[in-house]
Amino acid sequence: MEFNATFLPTDFSENKLKILSLVKLIVQVKDNNGTIVEEFQTNPSEKIYKISTLLTPSMEVEVTVLSGEVVEFYPVVTAL
After folding, report:
1. Is 3 helix (H, G, I), strand (E, B) or coil?
2. By CB neighbour count within 10 A (0-12 exposed, 13-18 middle, 19+ buried), where does 11 fall?
3. What is the 3-state secondary structure (H, E, C) of 47-68?
4. Would you tell me how many other CB atoms lie within 10 Å of the CB of residue 65?
5. 17-58: per-residue pLDDT in tens?
6. Whole-number pLDDT of residue 69
C-alpha cells in the first residue's frame, strides 16, 4: 500500500506536523524547483515534528512511506 501526502505552506500555522503512523515516514521540504531543502525520517513512537525551514509560498512539504516499510494502516498526517 502506498501513501503520499503533500502540504502547502498555507496549511501550517505552527510549522509542525502531527503524525500517527505505525511505520517510518520520510518528510521532505521542497522549493519551487523540486530541490530538497530539508529532509527527516519519522519514528512511530514520536507524534509531533517541527519543520526547521521557514516555509515560503512556493514550497511544498511531502510525506511518503520509507522504502521497504509494509503499510497495514494508512498514516494520519496533520499540518499544525
Report:
1. coil
2. middle
3. CEEECCCCCCCCCEEEEEECCC
4. 19
5. 999 999 999 999 999 999 999 999 999 999 999 999 999 999
6. 83
CA distances 72 to 6, 8, 44, 65, 66, Å, are: 20, 27, 13, 12, 14
Whether the model clears a pTM of 0.90, i.e. scores above it, the answer is yes
Separation of CA 64 from chain center: 7
- The more confident residue out of 1 and 5 is 5
CB burial of 15-31 (b: ≥16 within 10 Å; e: otherwise) equals bebebebebebebbbbe
- Which among 60, 53, 49 has a CA at the least distance from the CA of 25? 49
